[in-house]
Design brief:
heterodimer, A: 111 residues, mainly beta, 3-stranded antiparallel sheet, 43% strand, B: 118 residues, 7-stranded mixed sheet, 0% helix, 53% strand
Protein backbone atom coordinates (compact mmCIF):
# COMPACT_ATOMS: atom_id res chain seq x y z
CA UNK A 1 0.00 0.00 0.00
CA UNK A 2 1.67 3.22 -1.17
CA UNK A 3 1.33 6.45 0.72
CA UNK A 4 -1.15 9.03 -0.51
CA UNK A 5 0.47 11.76 -2.62
CA UNK A 6 0.76 15.28 -1.25
CA UNK A 7 2.82 18.25 -2.48
CA UNK A 8 6.05 18.54 -0.52
CA UNK A 9 5.49 22.19 0.28
CA UNK A 10 2.91 24.95 0.00
CA UNK A 11 3.38 28.56 1.00
CA UNK A 12 1.30 31.68 1.36
CA UNK A 13 1.26 35.12 2.90
CA UNK A 14 -0.69 35.99 6.04
CA UNK A 15 -4.36 36.38 5.29
CA UNK A 16 -4.23 34.38 2.08
CA UNK A 17 -5.85 31.00 1.44
CA UNK A 18 -3.92 27.88 0.52
CA UNK A 19 -5.02 24.41 -0.51
CA UNK A 20 -3.20 21.13 0.05
CA UNK A 21 -4.10 18.18 -2.14
CA UNK A 22 -4.04 14.50 -1.24
CA UNK A 23 -4.28 12.02 -4.09
CA UNK A 24 -5.04 8.35 -3.67
CA UNK A 25 -7.01 5.68 -5.48
CA UNK A 26 -10.49 4.23 -5.59
CA UNK A 27 -9.39 1.81 -2.85
CA UNK A 28 -8.87 4.61 -0.37
CA UNK A 29 -9.64 8.32 -0.88
CA UNK A 30 -12.00 7.81 -3.80
CA UNK A 31 -13.88 4.89 -2.33
CA UNK A 32 -14.69 6.11 1.16
CA UNK A 33 -15.54 9.32 2.99
CA UNK A 34 -12.98 8.56 5.67
CA UNK A 35 -10.35 11.17 4.91
CA UNK A 36 -8.72 12.91 7.87
CA UNK A 37 -6.18 15.73 8.10
CA UNK A 38 -3.54 16.20 10.80
CA UNK A 39 -1.38 19.19 11.71
CA UNK A 40 2.06 18.61 13.20
CA UNK A 41 4.30 21.32 14.61
CA UNK A 42 8.02 20.52 14.98
CA UNK A 43 8.71 18.20 17.88
CA UNK A 44 5.02 17.78 18.66
CA UNK A 45 2.45 15.07 18.18
CA UNK A 46 0.03 15.38 15.26
CA UNK A 47 -3.36 16.96 15.90
CA UNK A 48 -6.64 16.04 14.20
CA UNK A 49 -7.94 18.97 12.14
CA UNK A 50 -10.54 17.39 9.84
CA UNK A 51 -12.31 14.01 9.88
CA UNK A 52 -14.66 12.29 7.44
CA UNK A 53 -13.59 14.60 4.61
CA UNK A 54 -15.09 17.86 5.87
CA UNK A 55 -15.87 17.71 9.58
CA UNK A 56 -14.01 19.74 12.20
CA UNK A 57 -13.50 18.44 15.73
CA UNK A 58 -14.59 20.71 18.54
CA UNK A 59 -12.14 23.57 19.01
CA UNK A 60 -10.72 23.58 15.49
CA UNK A 61 -10.96 26.94 13.74
CA UNK A 62 -13.43 27.25 10.84
CA UNK A 63 -10.51 28.60 8.80
CA UNK A 64 -9.77 24.93 8.14
CA UNK A 65 -12.02 23.12 5.70
CA UNK A 66 -11.90 19.87 3.77
CA UNK A 67 -13.34 18.55 0.54
CA UNK A 68 -13.03 15.66 -1.88
CA UNK A 69 -13.45 15.10 -5.59
CA UNK A 70 -12.86 11.67 -7.05
CA UNK A 71 -9.56 10.26 -5.77
CA UNK A 72 -8.28 13.61 -4.49
CA UNK A 73 -9.03 15.21 -1.15
CA UNK A 74 -8.12 18.77 -0.25
CA UNK A 75 -7.48 20.83 2.86
CA UNK A 76 -7.98 24.57 2.59
CA UNK A 77 -6.64 27.01 5.14
CA UNK A 78 -8.17 30.44 4.81
CA UNK A 79 -6.93 33.61 6.47
CA UNK A 80 -3.48 32.09 6.83
CA UNK A 81 -1.78 32.86 10.13
CA UNK A 82 1.78 32.44 11.38
CA UNK A 83 0.65 29.65 13.74
CA UNK A 84 -0.53 27.61 10.75
CA UNK A 85 3.07 27.00 9.73
CA UNK A 86 3.47 23.25 10.25
CA UNK A 87 3.47 19.89 8.50
CA UNK A 88 0.11 18.55 7.36
CA UNK A 89 -0.76 14.93 6.70
CA UNK A 90 -3.85 13.44 5.15
CA UNK A 91 -5.02 9.96 5.99
CA UNK A 92 -7.65 7.63 4.60
CA UNK A 93 -9.22 4.31 5.30
CA UNK A 94 -8.05 1.78 2.74
CA UNK A 95 -9.47 -1.56 1.68
CA UNK A 96 -6.04 -2.86 0.68
CA UNK A 97 -3.72 -4.59 3.13
CA UNK A 98 -4.11 -2.12 5.97
CA UNK A 99 -6.87 -0.02 7.49
CA UNK A 100 -5.11 3.32 7.32
CA UNK A 101 -2.79 4.98 4.89
CA UNK A 102 -1.15 8.37 5.45
CA UNK A 103 -0.13 10.97 2.93
CA UNK A 104 3.48 11.90 2.26
CA UNK A 105 3.09 15.15 4.17
CA UNK A 106 3.13 18.83 3.19
CA UNK A 107 5.17 21.56 4.81
CA UNK A 108 3.19 24.80 4.99
CA UNK A 109 5.24 27.96 5.16
CA UNK A 110 3.77 31.35 6.03
CA UNK A 111 5.79 33.96 4.19
CA UNK B 1 -9.44 16.21 29.43
CA UNK B 2 -8.89 13.04 27.43
CA UNK B 3 -5.25 12.11 27.15
CA UNK B 4 -2.86 9.29 26.42
CA UNK B 5 0.28 9.01 28.53
CA UNK B 6 3.09 6.97 27.01
CA UNK B 7 6.11 5.36 28.61
CA UNK B 8 9.54 6.93 28.33
CA UNK B 9 12.26 6.84 25.72
CA UNK B 10 14.36 3.71 25.32
CA UNK B 11 17.63 2.71 23.69
CA UNK B 12 17.72 -0.89 22.45
CA UNK B 13 20.25 -3.19 20.81
CA UNK B 14 19.61 -4.65 17.35
CA UNK B 15 17.74 -7.94 17.62
CA UNK B 16 16.11 -7.10 20.93
CA UNK B 17 12.49 -6.22 21.70
CA UNK B 18 10.73 -3.17 23.10
CA UNK B 19 7.33 -2.79 24.73
CA UNK B 20 5.74 0.67 24.90
CA UNK B 21 2.75 1.44 27.11
CA UNK B 22 -0.05 3.96 26.64
CA UNK B 23 -2.38 4.77 29.54
CA UNK B 24 -5.68 6.36 28.59
CA UNK B 25 -7.70 8.75 30.72
CA UNK B 26 -11.07 10.28 29.93
CA UNK B 27 -13.84 8.41 28.18
CA UNK B 28 -14.60 4.70 28.39
CA UNK B 29 -11.50 2.75 27.39
CA UNK B 30 -13.30 -0.22 25.87
CA UNK B 31 -15.44 1.93 23.60
CA UNK B 32 -12.46 3.09 21.54
CA UNK B 33 -9.84 1.61 19.27
CA UNK B 34 -6.16 2.36 19.85
CA UNK B 35 -3.63 2.56 17.05
CA UNK B 36 0.14 2.86 16.95
CA UNK B 37 1.75 5.19 14.45
CA UNK B 38 5.47 5.69 14.02
CA UNK B 39 7.59 8.46 12.55
CA UNK B 40 11.23 7.92 11.64
CA UNK B 41 13.54 10.95 11.91
CA UNK B 42 12.63 13.51 9.27
CA UNK B 43 10.04 11.17 7.76
CA UNK B 44 6.25 10.92 7.54
CA UNK B 45 3.68 9.04 9.56
CA UNK B 46 3.27 5.28 9.28
CA UNK B 47 0.36 3.30 10.73
CA UNK B 48 1.44 0.05 12.34
CA UNK B 49 -1.71 -1.52 13.74
CA UNK B 50 -4.60 -1.16 16.15
CA UNK B 51 -6.49 -2.94 18.90
CA UNK B 52 -10.19 -3.04 19.62
CA UNK B 53 -10.23 -3.64 23.40
CA UNK B 54 -13.91 -4.59 23.68
CA UNK B 55 -13.33 -7.43 21.19
CA UNK B 56 -9.69 -8.05 22.09
CA UNK B 57 -8.93 -8.06 18.36
CA UNK B 58 -5.80 -6.57 16.84
CA UNK B 59 -5.10 -5.69 13.20
CA UNK B 60 -1.64 -5.06 11.76
CA UNK B 61 -0.31 -3.64 8.56
CA UNK B 62 1.44 -6.28 6.46
CA UNK B 63 4.82 -4.62 6.86
CA UNK B 64 4.87 -5.34 10.59
CA UNK B 65 2.88 -8.57 10.62
CA UNK B 66 4.70 -11.13 12.73
CA UNK B 67 6.99 -8.60 14.35
CA UNK B 68 4.55 -6.40 16.26
CA UNK B 69 2.01 -7.27 18.94
CA UNK B 70 -0.58 -4.80 20.17
CA UNK B 71 -2.49 -5.60 23.35
CA UNK B 72 -4.77 -3.85 25.82
CA UNK B 73 -5.44 -4.20 29.54
CA UNK B 74 -8.99 -3.04 30.18
CA UNK B 75 -8.48 -3.13 33.95
CA UNK B 76 -5.84 -0.40 33.77
CA UNK B 77 -7.01 1.35 30.56
CA UNK B 78 -3.60 0.75 29.04
CA UNK B 79 -2.62 -0.25 25.52
CA UNK B 80 0.73 -1.79 24.66
CA UNK B 81 2.85 -2.15 21.54
CA UNK B 82 5.67 -4.68 21.43
CA UNK B 83 8.09 -4.72 18.51
CA UNK B 84 10.53 -7.60 18.11
CA UNK B 85 13.74 -8.21 16.16
CA UNK B 86 14.62 -4.54 16.29
CA UNK B 87 16.87 -3.07 13.62
CA UNK B 88 18.34 0.38 13.11
CA UNK B 89 15.48 1.28 10.73
CA UNK B 90 13.08 0.98 13.66
CA UNK B 91 14.57 4.08 15.25
CA UNK B 92 11.59 6.42 15.42
CA UNK B 93 9.02 8.18 17.56
CA UNK B 94 6.13 5.84 18.31
CA UNK B 95 2.74 7.43 18.91
CA UNK B 96 -0.26 5.89 20.59
CA UNK B 97 -3.55 7.22 19.21
CA UNK B 98 -7.23 6.85 20.04
CA UNK B 99 -9.80 6.15 17.37
CA UNK B 100 -12.27 8.96 16.88
CA UNK B 101 -15.66 9.08 15.20
CA UNK B 102 -14.76 6.63 12.47
CA UNK B 103 -11.41 6.06 10.79
CA UNK B 104 -9.66 9.02 12.33
CA UNK B 105 -7.44 9.46 15.38
CA UNK B 106 -8.71 12.14 17.71
CA UNK B 107 -6.30 11.89 20.63
CA UNK B 108 -2.54 11.36 20.36
CA UNK B 109 0.06 10.59 22.99
CA UNK B 110 3.20 12.73 23.11
CA UNK B 111 5.23 9.96 21.56
CA UNK B 112 7.94 7.58 22.73
CA UNK B 113 11.39 7.75 21.14
CA UNK B 114 12.90 4.34 20.47
CA UNK B 115 16.54 4.33 19.39
CA UNK B 116 18.05 1.12 18.05
CA UNK B 117 21.80 1.17 18.15
CA UNK B 118 24.65 -1.20 18.85
Amino acid sequence: QSALTQPASVSGSPGQSITISCTGTSSDVGGYNYVSWYQQHPGKAPKLMIYEVNNRPSGISNRFSGSKSGNTASLTISGLQAEDEADYYCSSYTSINTFYVFGTGTKVTVL
Amino acid sequence: QDQLVQSGAEVKKPGSSVKVSCKASGGTFSSYTFSWVRQAPGQGLEWMGRIIPILDIANYTQKFQGRVTITADKSTSTAYMELNSLRSEDTAVYYCTRGGTSFDMDVWGKGTTITVSS
